[in-house]
Amino acid sequence: MKKEASRYELKSQKLNQAIERLISHSSSDENTDLFRQIITTALKLQDERVDRGDLKILNTSLKELRWAFRIFRPYRHFKKVSVFGSARIKKSDSSYQMAKRFSKLMVESGWMIVTGGSTGIMHAGNEGAGRAHSFGANIRLPLEQDVNPVISEDKKLIHFKYFFTRKLIFVKESDAICLLPGGYGTLDEGFETLTLMQTGKMMPRPIVLLEPKSGSYWSTWLHFIKKSLLGRKMIDAADLNLFHVTSNEKEARDVIIQFYKVYHSMRFVGDQLVIRLKRSISDGAVKKLNSRFKDIVETGKIEKSGALVMETGEPETADLPRLVMRFDRCHFGRLKMMVDFINQLDD
Question: Which CATH class is domain 77-259?
Answer without folding.
Answer: alpha beta
